[in-house]
Specification:
There is one protein chain. The protein is mainly α. 86% of the residues lie in helices and 0% in strands.
Amino acid sequence: MMVVEALVALLLLASGAAALVAALGLLRLPDFFMRMHAPAIATTLGVWTVSVAAILHFSFGGGR
């Protein structure tokens, strides 16, 4: 169980890092379309990592 919890925590931290990268891309890129591209890609990665973390959490006994 500790391995699954550690993996879920790691995935949630990765999602937070993706959100941070999206925010930095939004602030630093010069063009409008480039500014919209970076958050879209990073947000997609963040949503996928949160989804996988939720699946792992509730599949391995977190929802008891």
